Amino acid sequence: MDAGAKFNFMNQIQVNEVGPRDGLQNIDTILNIGERLQLIQSLERAGINSLEVGSFVNPKAVPAMANTDALLEKLVNSNSDYSVLIPNIYGYELAKINKVKEVCLVLCATESMNKENINKSIKDTIVEFKEIINRAKKDQIKTKIYISVAFECPYEGLVSSEYVYDLTKKFLSYGINEVVIADTIGAGKPDQVKKLFRRLVKDFGPSDFSAHFHDTRQLALSNVKAAMEEGISKFDSCIAGLGGCPFAPGASGNLATEDLVSMLHKEGYETGISEEMLKKSIDLVSNFINLKN
Ligand code: MG
After folding, report:
1. Which domain holds residue 122?
2. So which residues are the catalytic ones?
3. Which residues, 6 or more positions from 283, have their beta carbon under 8 angstroms from its beta carbon?
4. Alpha-carbon distance 103 to 112, whole Å?
5. What's the 4 CA to ligand 1 centre distance in angstroms?
6. 98-115 b/e with 16+ CB inside 10 Å = b?
7. Rounded to an integer, what is the distance from CA 121 to the centroid of its chain?
8. What is the mean pLDDT of residues 1-13?
9. Closest-CA residue to 22 (of 67, 49, 50, 55)
10. Rounded CA gap, 86 and 104, in Å?
11. Measured between alpha carbons, how far is 120 from 122 in angstroms, rounded to an integer?
12. What domain count does the chain have?
């Protein structure tokens, strides 16, 4: 792709920051609500306006995300787009009560991983998620689904791209607003990423898709580029590359926001994000972690 084509094609890339949820949930240190709020506001000052800020899951299972309702109360006056992860209908109802505008669902593309993650079969998960999507449409809440372990599973190995395609197609037919292809253990390779997105974009267009890569094998940025070449313009990333996945062995850090933004700017894309200000967010989160350890 030459520079001219790139600018005609798309020069604006949207970064969705997942540090306040995916990052903080997967480190040992637990931040309090004030600290979680400070991190979010620091990221916003850096120009990030799309963030996953918390979840409504059992606080005993995920203590780092307890009291997300109290956090949301403090964010009501912001203009950013906030999403919250929910595992089931109960979580959906909590999100609705707390006026969440976008909920994230996670479906793993293998039975073993899905069982590990939410202790349900894929079939039962799909039934429940379909009901959530129906309720959300009525409530005018946006829905986004992560197809997790989309390339490789720590328990079952290589994942069929045909199956990921079928799951994606099914959720689009239910009226999901966005499908995130998630390489949960950072095992995906650029040719696999290209192949999957080429087919999805050909059949459904690029606008309903985004991608979530991990840097386990230092391939996250190459995978971002591969997805961009197929027309994808929305990516998850996580400040300081925090986190992984507690239920997936070998899932080290998320793609770092500062790495993604730096690469995009060097390649001539716009993100609306200040690299200088991101450093302050990194310092902030490092201080929180260091103070407690
Ligand atoms: Mg992740």
Report:
1. 11-292
2. 245
3. none
4. 24
5. 33
6. bebebbbbbbbbbeebbb
7. 22
8. 58
9. 55
10. 6
11. 6
12. 1
The candidate with the shortest Cα–Cα distance to 43, out of 10, 13, 20, is 20
Distance 212 CA to ligand 1 centre (A): 7
Q: What is the pLDDT averaged over residues 86-99?
A: 98
Ligand 1 midpoint to CA 107 (Å): 13
Does residue 284 fall inside a structural domain?
yes
Tokens of 156: 């079952």
Domain assignment present for residue 5? The answer is no
8 A C-beta contact, residue 188 and residue 223: yes
- 52 CA to middle of ligand 1, Å? 11
The CA 192 to ligand 1 mean position distance, Å, reads: 18
pLDDT tens profile 47-58:
999 999 999 999
Ligand 1 centre from 146 Cα, in Å?
10
From the CA of 5, how far away is ligand 1's center (Å)? 31
Residue 6 within a domain = no
* Strand pairing category for 152-153 and 157-158: antiparallel
Q: Is 47 a domain residue?
A: yes
Taking 50 as the threshold, does the pLDDT of residue 129 lie above it? yes
| Residue-level pLDDT at 94 | 98
Number of neighbouring beta carbons within 10 Å of residue 243? 23
Dist. CA 35–CA 40, nearest whole Å: 9
User: For residue 176, which of 136, 125, 234 has the smallest C-alpha distance?
Assistant: 136
In this prediction, residue 293 has a pLDDT band, given cuts at 50, 70 and 90, of low
In whole angstroms, give the CA distance from residue 289 to residue 286: 5
The pLDDT of 165-188, averaged and rounded, is: 96
CATH assignment at residue 249: 3.20.20.70
Please count the other Cβ atoms lying within 10 Å of the Cβ belonging to residue 73. Answer: 12
